[in-house]
Amino acid sequence: MDVTDRPVIGIFGAGKVGTALARLLVASGYDVLMTGSPRQTALDLLVSVVAPGARVVPPADLVAHADVIIVAVPFGKAGTVPWEDFGGRIVVDAMNYWPPVDGHITAIDEDDRTTSEINAARNPRARVVKSLNHLGYHEMEDDSMDAGSPLRRALAVVGEDADARAVIARIIDDLGFDAVDGGGLANGRALEPGHPAFGRELSASELTALLSPAAHLAA
To answer: Residue 45 has what pLDDT?
Structure first.
């Protein structure tokens, strides 16, 4: 992947989060590929209406052609995503574990790891980054601001691969947010529902204070 150019973005999930991200990415000049549930009918028509400019492709084509893959399916459906094909790829885990929606999953409830660490273990060769999960889908477009705005909202980027974090940080900046490097995936606990950074409008310095180690990555 040549990160000097804008990467092709593939999104698994054509729900509210996935389509909101697709609109922002297309508006920022990215080539966006999307795929949804095999049971979702008329997906091409849906995406053409709610995320014009994004292209619907089969999952295998998305994996083959996307430089960055965003997983934005309901957490309970995470196992339906082809993690086995993500080796060497930058993968953004934008999901949240919501027991009211997903039901209580005993294996998750009893696991001491963050949900992104659990997902990363599905393919240890994937370059998993946790981000884009700790704001609402409606806020993605409403809160997007130009670089340098004193009210610009910050989004965290955590993952074991520093280069992958830097790629996602540049994308976040293009989307209209300040990116904060939160270090490894274990630090993503602060981004999960019920934890300090989730759902809060924070500046880069405020978000940095909730993540350790952390460094501001925005240009």
So the answer is: 87
Asked whether the predicted pLDDT for residue 42 surpasses 90, the reply is no
**pLDDT tens-digit readout, 168-186:** 999 999 999 999 999 999 9
Provide mean pLDDT across the span 99-115: 90
Q: Please state, as a whole number, how many other Cβ atoms lie within 10 Å of the Cβ of residue 138.
A: 10
Name the average pLDDT for the chain. 91
From CA 168, how far away is CA 187, in angstroms rounded? 16
Cα–Cα distance for residue pair 112/121, rounded to 1 Å: 13
Q: What span, in angstroms and rounded, lies between the C-alpha atoms of 161 and 166?
A: 9
Q: What are phi and psi of 109, to 5 degrees?
A: -60, -35
CB 69 within 8 A of CB 62: yes
Cβ neighbors of 95 (< 8 A, separation 6 or more) are: 71, 72, 73, 74, 75, 78, 115, 119, 133
CB 169 within 8 A of CB 48: no
